[in-house]
Amino acid sequence: MHTLRDTHHTQNDIATSFWNKVSLLAKTGKIISIDKVKDEIYNKNDSLEDWCRSNLPDNFFKVSAEVMAEYGSVVAWAMSMNHHYLPNALNEFMDVDEADAFLIAYTLADSSNRILVTQEVSAPQRKNKIKMPDCCDSLGVIHTSTIEMFRQLGETF
Predict the structure, then answer these.
(1) Which of 7, 52, 101, 145 is in the most buried spot, having the most CB atoms within 10 Å?
(2) Residues 114, 73: contact at Cβ < 8 Å?
(3) How many domains does the chain have?
(4) Rounded distance, CA 92 to CA 18, Å?
(5) In what order do the strands lie in the sheet with 31-34?
(6) Which domain holds residue 80?
(7) Number of alpha carbons in the 13 Å side-chain half-sphere of residue 150
(8) What contacts 24+ positions apart, CB below 8 Å, involve 67-74?
(9) What pTM does this model have?
(10) Residues in contact with 81: Cβ distance below 8 Å, sequence separation at least 6, in sequence order
(11) pLDDT tens per residue across span 75-120
């Protein structure tokens, strides 16, 4: 199962076969996301929110409160990196309204069945922003890009 992140940067009125595939994979339970991502999407009142409401099943966005132990592990990792990352980077990453750390925690909670999907690229030398792949690599969480996710699922369009 893939936990989906970062598709909201794409306009959903183009690449309709992409969006149709996302909807199909969501309805078959092959991809999921979490409530924190839903909160980020649903506070903009835009076409992506409309699309999500119309095309994703009710159970697509999972409850992140179920992974608080794993979230604690993600936060502990971030705090252990306080010698590297600037305080603002740490504060942003650990903000309870931000999805990144919760996505990692949700994937970590069932790491043999979940892969984190993100367009972020590792940047371990960066000090002003924690990139999800860097945290994932440290915690043993598998991650991939959206295109690679489609490849792993055997999907074409």
Answers:
(1) 101
(2) no
(3) 1
(4) 30
(5) 61-62, 31-34, 2-3, 115-117, 143-144
(6) 2-153
(7) 14
(8) 67/102, 67/105, 67/106, 67/108, 67/109, 68/105, 69/109, 70/105, 70/106, 70/108, 70/109, 71/101, 71/102, 71/105, 73/105, 73/108, 73/139, 74/101, 74/104, 74/105, 74/108, 74/135, 74/139
(9) 0.90
(10) 90, 130
(11) 999 999 999 999 999 999 999 999 999 999 999 999 999 999 999 9
> Residue 51 is encoded by which pair of tokens?
């699309």
Joined tokens for residue 14: 């183009």
Token reading at 99: 């999805």
Q: Which residue is it, tokens 């600037």?
A: 86
d(Cα 142, Cα 107) in Å, to the nearest integer? 8
**For residue range 42-71, what is the model confidence (pLDDT) as tens digits?**
988 889 999 999 999 999 999 999 999 999
